[in-house]
Specification:
Layout: H1 3-21, E1 29-31, H2 34-38, E2 41-43, H3 51-55, E3 60-68, E4 74-81, H4 84-94, E5 98-99, E6 102-104, E7 107-119
Parallel strand pairs: 1-7
Antiparallel strand pairs: 2-5, 3-4, 3-7, 6-7
Length: 123
């Protein structure tokens, strides 16, 4: 057998095939309640009350659905409901939140959860 052919075959077996067969599957995702995830919150940024909402005495809760990445950062946010004057402030704050990663079977997983951001004027 030709040594060059043998060397090429070995290179393919040891370097190319593992790369080609490696699965780039997305991280596993679990659903966790917002009450459970609030216990894992390690960095919370409070929203800035929008001046227009303050002047109009608007209060309320902005309900969000979040995907939390395996590193605990916010990966995706979706607004489920909330007053339009409060939504942007809620999104801006929550995008900066950080959680302890959730571990399942020894690996960090993505988390789908709900987040409520409450806006209440001081009386």
């Amino acid at each position: 057998m030709n040594p060059r052919y043998l060397l090429c075959t070995l290179l393919v077996l040891f370097f190319v095939l593992p790369i080609a067969s490696r699965s780039d599957t997305p991280a596993k995702r679990v659903t966790v309640s917002g009450k459970e995830m609030i216990q894992r919150l390690i960095h919370r940024v409070e929203p800035v009350y929008p001046p227009e909402a303050r002047r109009a005495n608007i209060e309320g809760t902005v309900k969000l659905t979040a995907v939390i990445a395996t590193d605990g950062s916010i990966q995706q946010l979706r607004v489920d409901r909330g007053h339009p004057l409060l939504v942007k402030a809620a999104l801006d704050a929550v995008k900066l939140w950080k959680y302890d990663p959730v571990i399942v079977d020894g690996s960090a997983v993505e988390v789908l959860t709900g987040i409520d951001v409450v806006f209440q004027l001081k009386k």
